[in-house]
Structure to design on (339 residues):
């Protein structure tokens, strides 16, 4: 009898061990933010290989998208005084996507905000409210129409324009991670506020991934969750990068129309989309548009988005219910789910 039990226990262990995939998490710092990529595999080595491969891809993109690293293509382009520059295929693809989303959002997303972001210095020791004349001078150089894509990875910037791909960089990196995976990989990539949830989640019966939407007043807590698979969930808010002067908060999402941080009555926007680059550009653009214009834009273009307003309302576009399961958790924190 004892031997029989031992065999059953052994069998249970063997089947249990093989059925339960192993996970490996790569934690690292890139693109000025903390990143974490968890991969699942048949054994620990397989999981580790996948996670490390994803991490290496993200790290390799850093010089392709950074504008502060002096060895980067964007830095070279920004300091070329209007000359034609040949850039890497990754850099060219990112600029092309950025210009496409600038056109799509009527310039609410604009990848030529570098003169403004430099001027305000958010997240640097020099963060301050500039003089109006300085803002006007920086704004005169902003305009995605000043980006000339000439083919063959050649780009020219006109009229003193300078690129800042900060609004899509992490989305572009998330899409690059997704492109490495085949349909059978299970990976949860958290690149700052950009999440990619790919394949089947092996630790939940549903196989879906549950992603939290942060409470802007306490971003360790959630005011909603979305349950997704094979999608990216991107959030932009006023609560991650900002400074305060004279009791007022100045955050890092700028309105290209005013040169000031977008004062649209929003705290955050989340977009759920297959393409993380698109979601990233859209969160920034929708934040600039504000609730009313943003909701109308989403309805017209079939975009799944969640808006959190300064007066603690949570608005969800019609498309959200079609792509994920949305659960509102904000009532106890004083939020209202606007229906
Ligand atoms: P995060 O980088 O925190 O995820 P976003 O995706 O909203 O947030 O990107 C904000 C960054 O994008 C800013 O730090 C700045 O570099 C750049 N940026 C700010 N305003 C705009 C804008 N209107 N269009 C495009 N890029 C912007
Ligand atoms: Mg963005």
């Amino acid at each position: 009898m004892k031997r029989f039990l031992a065999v059953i226990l052994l069998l249970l262990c063997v089947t249990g061990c093989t059925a339960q995939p192993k996970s490996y998490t790569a934690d690292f710092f890139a693109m000025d933010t903390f990143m974490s990529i968890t991969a699942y595999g048949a054994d620990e080595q397989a999981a580790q290989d996948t996670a490390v491969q994803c991490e290496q891809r993200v790290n390799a993109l850093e010089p392709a998208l950074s504008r502060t690293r002096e060895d980067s293509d964007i830095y070279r382009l920004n300091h070329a005084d209007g000359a034609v520059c040949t850039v890497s295929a990754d850099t060219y693809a990112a600029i092309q996507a950025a210009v496409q989303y600038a056109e799509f959002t009527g310039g609410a997303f604009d990848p030529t905000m570098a003169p403004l972001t430099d001027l305000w210095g958010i997240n640097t020791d020099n963060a301050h409210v500039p003089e109006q004349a300085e803002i006007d001078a920086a704004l005169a150089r902003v305009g995605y129409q000043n980006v000339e894509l000439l083919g063959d990875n050649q780009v020219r910037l006109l009229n003193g324009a300078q690129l800042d791909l900060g609004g899509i960089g992490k989305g572009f990196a998330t899409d690059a991670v997704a492109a490495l995976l085949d349909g059978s990989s299970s990976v949860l990539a958290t690149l700052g506020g950009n999440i990619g949830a790919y394949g089947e989640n092996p630790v939940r019966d549903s196989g879906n991934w549950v992603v939290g939407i942060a409470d802007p007043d306490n971003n360790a807590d959630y005011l909603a969750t979305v349950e997704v698979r094979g999608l990216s969930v991107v959030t932009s808010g006023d609560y991650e990068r900002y400074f305060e002067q004279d009791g007022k908060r100045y955050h890092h999402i700028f309105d290209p129309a005013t040169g000031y941080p977008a004062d649209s009555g929003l705290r955050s926007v989340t977009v759920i989309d297959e393409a993380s680059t698109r979601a990233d550009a859209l969160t920034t653009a929708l934040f600039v548009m504000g609730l009313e214009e943003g909701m109308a834009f989403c309805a017209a273009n079939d975009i799944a988005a969640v808006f959190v307003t300064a007066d603690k309302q949570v608005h969800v576009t019609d498309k959200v219910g079609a792509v994920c399961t949305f659960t509102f958790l904000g009532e106890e924190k004083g939020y209202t789910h606007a229906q």
